[in-house]
Design a protein that fits this description.
By secondary structure, the chain is of the alpha/beta class. It contains 5 helices and 4 strands. Strand 3, helix 4 and strand 4 form a beta-alpha-beta unit.
């Protein structure tokens, strides 16, 4: 993970330097599953100047990337997929007290509000977690097309 984090940060910093005169230009960072954890870690250790340039498109994320970490955060998972629930499984998140659930669990639950759960495509297999799943194809096409149209202006 530290190697992936540094590679992500390096590519974002290079983009930023090349486009310093164009602060409106953004990077579309697509991540899948554990890749969302790597992107989250890299965003958490980057400057606001860099993170404000990122549009993050998470497919079947293992970690939810919140809007406070980037310019825009788009999150999609299949209704059949369980991977996005993994961060809820850590035992300390369920540490309750007399007044309710732990703060950490409440924060994690709040990040799920923006996660869009998609109906699985009829041809989707198993948990429908694969990046190549037909469930995610329309989402990827739509956001790639929109990004490319905006980047060419």
């Amino acid at each position: 993970s530290p190697n992936v984090e540094s590679l992500l940060k390096k590519s974002w910093e290079e983009f930023h330097e090349k486009n310093r005169a164009h602060p409106e230009r953004k990077i579309l960072q697509i991540c899948h599953s554990q890749g969302a954890i790597h992107v989250y870690n890299a965003l958490s250790h980057s400057t606001k100047e860099i993170t404000d340039r990122l549009i993050v498109l998470s497919i079947a994320p293992a970690k939810i990337i919140t809007l406070d970490l980037c310019h825009q955060s788009l999150k999609f998972a299949s209704k059949n997929d369980l991977v996005h629930l993994a961060e809820l499984l850590h035992p300390s998140f369920f540490a309750s007290n007399e007044t309710g659930t732990s703060e950490r669990l409440e924060r994690i639950l709040a990040t799920r509000e923006d996660l869009i759960l998609l109906d699985p495509h009829p041809d989707a297999k198993g948990l429908d977690h694969e990046f190549e799943s037909p469930t995610f194809k329309p989402v990827l096409e739509m956001y790639l097309r929109a990004y490319l149209e905006n980047a060419s202006r």
